[in-house]
Design goal:
heterodimer; A: about 375 residues; mainly alpha; B: about 300 residues; alpha+beta; four-stranded mixed sheet; two-stranded antiparallel sheet; globular
């Protein structure tokens, strides 16, 4: 990456940080008065943000677990980068959900008086445990240095099962809710895992290819990662087709209204343009056309990773827009008691803050911890 | 259960020294020091005892709660008087032997929203919080039309979806059937709001009707007495119940002293009934035994304690 590119990225980061700090200040001084979620749509951008960041963390680290478990030599140079990305995104996820709580300073209660029948409590404990596991494995990776295969495979296998369980629990948080027919679906945890793998691995592809220059990353790595992302895009699209087509086929059912709002409602462009066109079809085209091109691969990975937030929003919000009974919104008129939602500027600002913190953590981590060369191990890389 | 961290009410002893946090004078008066020490010990003991009593109050120990000596305010033979008498009789039983249920006769409900207003007043509800909205639906086409009014309090389900999802055990179902929330424990994650299939729970965003106006009126900052405790909301703070999930409590604080829930006494059409289902000859039990009875979303298996007569 050359100096002008670094300068542009720094400016973008600075804008995110300053904007984010304003949002954090508003949140801390006005409480929840400047937020747009309420009683009938209690979960908004920040909950979707937490799901998004956790998905990135799980997906990125899953690559590392696979590298260790299956001893994938050609991808070994990506192991440490993936761990750093995973740690940074996990912390960002915990940060954004902390701001979402009505009593932020009581967050510790989840760990001091947990209710393990609650998937939210289970996911919270798994979040912390997963973060600790990531840090432990990073330490082990540093200890074993440049030697391939010396990181015991067991760490990779444990990681794989841990990642599936953690991601599945995050998906099950929504899937177990009987209150929303849209959420209450057994495909939910599978989609959560699939989406996590796709967004996380795409992010690793983006960071690894765009943070270096031509020749700085092995072509073999780009090809393997490109094919992986292609496969995951198709896998997730199949799952989404299954979810939407089953609900829409006869035009009836409890989840019909939610899916109709996603596909043809006020925010139709979030699915069709942001997720499908920009986040799926365009990257597919680029990766199939230029599978070994560094910039094409990096750009595709970035598009997938960034636009996947739209998928998370389209999962969290529509599950809450259907009133429990007709006439409920009109029964008591109040700005907090409505079934429409658009994130407020404060919500976006705090989300931007989390993104800025994530970028800063990764940048700091990559300065402190040697990530090594991205050239293949067989060609002199680590 | 942590001690309630609210502003000191008129009932709480003021522990502050007159001098506040001023430094001690060089010559120490031993008598004053001993007096202060003993006062603090006594106050601390009272505080600890209060904490213990508070826990019991929320946990539902009403064996010693004595109903207030109200004059007979309802006409002899009226359903309200019958419900009041039955309530008093039920209060004599152990908590675990009561099962509070509500019955709403939709043919008597006129959609006046008086119950909504009464509930809002009784619990001093702020913007964004409503315990008993009355959705109104049209049926048929003109000229053969009808209105259907469905007052919707918390269902106090026997299989509540909101209870197992709470990550910190801040909400639970009491032995008498009422689902409660401990405002001092609730972290405001709103998992229970999202899990309720009836949209019965609402969230206190910390808003006030007078916010943005020259003055927030005193009625907004007076305490409410949910769960028989003082809850005073203050602007610009996170003091509970601000930042907490909130919902209908079946007016537990009124039941404890022998009063019917506010919505029951206010109902213009006499459409709302309340009582102990476990009492064999109670009015609510008679009503539930009719063919008109139904419950909302029974297919979900939540087993609501609110019945409707269609």
């Amino acid at each position: 990456m050359n100096k002008p590119q670094k300068t542009i990225l720094f400016i973008i980061w600075l804008v995110l940080l300053v904007w984010g700090l304003i949002g954090v200040f508003q949140r801390m001084t006005t409480g929840e008065l400047t937020l747009n979620y309420g009683s009938y749509i209690p979960w908004g951008l920040w909950v979707a943000g937490k799901v998004y960041f956790v998905g990135l963390a799980v997906g990125a680290s899953f690559l590392t677990w696979s590298i260790y478990a299956f001893n994938i030599r050609s991808l070994k140079p990506l192991a440490r980068i993936s761990l750093l990305i995973s740690i940074a995104t996990m912390i960002a996820g915990l940060l954004v959900i902390a701001f979402d709580l009505g009593h932020m300073w009581r967050l510790y209660e989840v760990y001091t008086r947990p209710n393990f029948s609650s998937l939210l409590a289970i996911a919270s404990w798994l979040s912390m445990a997963y973060l600790i596991y990531l840090l432990i494995v990073l330490g082990i990776d540093l200890k074993y240095g440049r030697e391939i295969g010396n990181v015991p495979r067991v760490w990779g296998w444990i990681g794989i099962f841990f990642a599936i369980a953690f991601s599945g629990a995050n998906g099950a948080e929504f899937a177990t809710m009987v209150s929303s027919p849209y959420w209450h679906s057994s495909i939910g945890p599978i989609l959560s895992i699939g989406g996590a793998l796709l967004s996380g691995i795409a992010l690793v592809l983006a960071v690894s290819t765009l943070s270096t220059t031509d020749g700085g990353i092995d072509e073999q790595i780009i090809k393997i990662m490109s094919r992986t992302v292609i496969g995951l895009i198709l896998f997730v699209l199949v799952l989404e087709w299954s979810e939407y087509s089953v609900a829409m086929w006869y035009g009836r059912g409890g989840d019909y209204s939610s899916i109709t709002s996603i596909l043809f409602g006020h925010y139709w462009y979030v699915f069709w343009i942001v997720h499908l066109a920009i986040g799926s079809i365009l990257p597919l085209f680029l990766l199939l056309w230029q599978p070994a091109n560094r910039l094409a691969a990096g750009f595709s990975g970035a598009l997938v990773a960034i636009t996947y937030m739209a998928v998370r929003l389209n999962h969290v919000i529509p599950g809450q827009i259907t009133p429990a009974m007709r006439g409920l919104q009109e029964a008591y008129t109040d700005k907090w008691l409505t079934f429409q939602y658009l994130p407020s500027s404060t919500e976006w600002a705090v989300f931007a803050f989390s993104v800025a913190v994530c970028i800063a953590l990764y940048w700091l981590g990559s300065r402190i911890i040697p990530v090594g060369s991205l050239k293949s191990v067989d060609k002199g890389g680590r | 259960m942590e001690m309630k961290k609210s502003a000191p009410s008129s009932r709480s002893p003021n522990l502050k020294n007159e001098d506040g946090f001023a430094s001690e004078p060089k010559r120490v008066n031993l008598k004053r020091r001993r007096f202060l020490k003993n006062s603090l010990l006594a106050a601390g003991s009272l505080g600890a005892l209060n904490c213990f009593l508070e826990k019991d109050a929320l946990a539902g120990d009403e064996q010693n709660a004595a109903p207030l000596p109200f004059p007979k305010s309802f006409a002899d033979g009226s359903p309200l008087e019958r419900m009041r008498v039955e309530l008093l009789q039920a209060l004599k039983k152990p908590v675990s032997e009561r099962k509070w249920v509500m019955v709403i006769d939709q043919q008597k409900c006129v959609g006046c929203d008086s119950c909504t207003v009464s509930c809002t007043s009784e619990n001093n509800l702020p913007p964004g919080v409503v315990y008993r909205p009355v959705p109104k639906q049209e049926a048929g086409t003109f000229p053969k039309m009808a209105w259907i009014f469905t007052p919707k309090p918390c269902m106090h389900c026997d299989q509540p979806p909101c209870v197992p999802v709470c990550p910190v055990k801040a909400t639970w179902k009491r032995e008498d059937g009422i689902v409660v929330i401990d405002y001092d424990i609730c972290i405001g994650c709103r998992n229970c709001l999202a899990s309720c299939p009836y949209n019965a729970r609402t969230f206190d965003m910390g808003d006030f009707f007078g916010l943005g106006t020259p003055e927030i009126m005193s009625y907004e900052t007076r305490p409410n007495y949910e769960y028989s405790k003082d809850w005073t909301r203050k602007p610009g703070t996170e003091i509970s119940p601000i930042g907490n999930a909130r919902k209908c409590t079946f007016c537990l604080h009124r039941i404890r002293v022998g009063m019917l829930p506010a919505c029951v006494t206010t109902c213009l059409g006499g459409a709302t009934y309340f009582g102990d289902y476990n009492s064999k000859h109670s009015l609510v039990r008679e009503l539930i035994g009719t063919s008109r009875v139904k419950r909302l979303k029974e297919e979900l298996g939540t087993e609501p304690s609110v019945y409707y007569l269609v």
